[in-house]
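Section 3.1: Structural characterization of target chains.
Under the original work plan, the team committed to producing a structural model for every single-chain target entering the pipeline before any wet-lab resources were allocated. The record below documents one such target. The sequence was received from the expression subgroup and is listed exactly as submitted; it comprises 117 residues.
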Amino acid sequence: QVQLVESGGGLVQPGGSLLLSCAASGRISSRYAMGWYRQAPGNERERVATTYDGGVTTTADSVEGRFTISRDNAKNTVYLQMNNLQPEDTAVYFCNLRDYFTRDDYWGQGTQVTVSS
């Protein structure tokens, strides 16, 4: 089993910044992807950004240029730097790890991000 623990959410004014972190522990495969998803009330969960084994990253169009995903393999940790936050970014943000070999998905408990003046 893999455990994911997120941190860094909170309340921020429009235009502000937050850094989310997600640390993985447990039976972690040698190859995996990690990413961030978010879910706002009444909406489906949507992918925000993903970092793949080897360093490739992808980011959703809605956050391109404002959010940056990065990964520290030594710490099995993924980060999401969120700049110029807007009210529409308000959601619960979930960390995800996908094992390349088993195709299993693991999820964190979620961290609330609220953007409001």
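The chain is about 0% helix and 55% strand.
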